[in-house]
Amino acid sequence: MTERPYFMKKPYDTLRYYARTRPQYFWPLTLSLTMIPGIIALTSFRRKYLYADHTPIPVSYPLPKRERVPLTGYDDEE
């Protein structure tokens, strides 16, 4: 087995070493660290060049802007 490289002297060799010896830790960490800036950059790019954000879905029924008239004639007969 090869000797562990010192990170400050050989960062590329260190990353290559961990990619080969511990890929279960290296690749998820690498992908997650590169996706965060990518998502932020792609979101601003999408808003500027591709399409704008959608209109939000209503969460309540829109009430009319008038006075409510009480209903008559629909009462139960006794």
Write the topology of this structure.
Elements: H1 11-21, H2 23-50
Helix pairs in contact: 1-2
Transmembrane segments: 25-45
InterPro entries: Nuo9.5
Keywords: Membrane, Transmembrane, Transmembrane helix
Structure description:
- With 78 residues, the protein is an all-alpha fold.
- It has a domain at 7-50.
- Helix content is 50%, strand content 0%.
- The chain is built from two helices and no strands.
- The chain has helices spanning 11-21, 23-50.
- Helix 1 (11-21) packs across helix 2 (23-50).
- The protein starts with 10 loop residues before the first helix and ends in a 28-residue tail after the last helix.
- The model has no long low-confidence stretch (mean pLDDT 85).
What structural keywords apply?
single chain; 78 residues; mainly alpha; 2 helices; elongated; transmembrane; membrane; NADH-ubiquinone oxidoreductase 9.5 kDa subunit
Uncertain stretches of 5 or more adjacent residues: none
Helix-strand category: mainly alpha
What is the oligomer described by this structure? single chain
Determine the mean pLDDT. 85
Strand percentage? under 5%
Quick overview:
The mean pLDDT is 85.
